[in-house]
Structures are given as C-alpha cells and as structure tokens.
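Sample log: Phosphatase PAP2 family protein.
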Amino acid sequence: MHLLHPEARPVTAATAVRGAYLALCAAAAAALTVLVALDWAPLLSFDRAVAGELHRSAVAEPGFTRLNRVLSDWVWDPWTMRVLTLAASVWLWARRERLLAVWVAAASVLGTGVQHGLKSAVDRERPRWADPVDSADYAAFPSGHAMSAAVACGLLAWLLRREGVRGRPWAWCASAAAVSVAGVGFTRLYLGVHWPSDVVGGWLLGALITGLAIASYAGAGRAVTRLRRMGPSGEDPGP
C-alpha cells in the first residue's frame, strides 16, 4: 500500500524556491485584496477602462461572444474544474494512494471555501452595463472561474509530473493547463461579468492554494520518511 511518494533526496533548494513562491503569491494576493476593498482609485480606473473596452468589443462581435460563453459556462466552468479534480482523487484512491487522494480533494475544497469567504467579505459589485451580453450572481472578487481553473489545472499538472510525464506529452499538458487558466480569465472579462483585478486575484489565490497543497504534501512525505527511518529509541539513524 503506497500512501506517499516521499522525496528522500536533499530538498533545501526546492524548499527555498517553494517558500519564495508562496511568499510572493501571498503578498501579491493580500495587497490586491486590500486595494480592492479600499476602492483604490487608480485600480478602479484601470479596471473600468479595460472592462469598458472589452465590453464594447463583445457587443460588436456576437459570434465571438457566443464562443466565449460556451468556453466560460461549459469547458472552463468551475464545476467542470471540480469534476476533473474529483476524478483525479478517485483515480488516486483506486490506486491506493489514499492520502494523496484526500490531499488533492481537500485542496479543491479549500480553494472553494477561500473563494466564497473572500467574496462575502469584500462584497465587490460586478460591472453593470446598459446592454449586457451575459450575467453572473454573487460578489465579484475574486473570480471564481479564474481561481477554480488555477487550482484544478495546477493540481492536475503536478500530479502528471509526479507520474513521470515528460517531453512532448508534458508540453501539451502544460500548454493546455496554461491556456485554460488564461483563457477562462479572458472569457470572464470579455463577457463583462468581472473586473480585471477580480481575475488577477483569482489567479493569485489559486496559485497560492496550489502551492500550499504541493509544499505541505512534500513536507508530509519527508516527515513520514524520517519517522520510518527512526529506530526504537526514536533517534534518526542517519542515511
């Protein structure tokens, strides 16, 4: 029974990189959330300018707008992302990698919880248009579509890498993940249901949740490896 695939090699450099990545994501997400909550004028001005330009394009290009609705409401919908993550968890469970299965599912649930908690706390109003091309409920910040895609695609890409996917297959998978994360953000802006900072906030928070899941699982793997190596006295016998 394989509960973990621990990395027994020295991980000092990897740990440092992960720490810097998490700190950067956390700081950027926190700063953006504060600026949105405080209605910082330069940010609001930028949001309105970008959203207004994209909305004018959406009204003028109904065919392209319909394509964006299909991508946003079906292909990259948050429920599609959650189903993919759940399928990965079920697959891991069937392979008897049960701790990892629970870890992946928990990261997805955590992302959803953080998303809804921040929406409620910030309570940002969505863009309003005289001639809307789409509609959405609940508060705007952060974008649930952008955050769900970042969490799901990040976790799935990590799992594929752990399974040894390399070369051209990995390039295709990584490209599909990147296109999905970037694409869903664009669709939400183009359809006029989010401000740019909502989407960026969703990306940052999604990247943070994914990074925390990966880092904590790696730490758990090293801890289990160390415990297994300890003798009856509880002392690490060394390599």
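Observation: Residues 12-223 form a domain with the Vanadium-containing Chloroperoxidase; domain 1 fold (CATH 1.20.144).
Observation: The chain has one domain: 12-223.
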